[in-house]
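Annex B. Sample input.
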Amino acid sequence: MYIGPETLMPFASILAAITGFLMLFWRRTVGIAKAIGRVFSRPSANAPRDG
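Annex B, continued. Sample output.
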């Protein structure tokens, strides 16, 4: 299967646009990712707590 440059360039352009948008709002992007991570990694009710 051959993928020529005329086929690959639109995908590369879309990827570059998404990457640029994420870099513009990097702090907010990382904050959202951390918040999502906290939701999925909440300790269970039976887990011992530190402190």
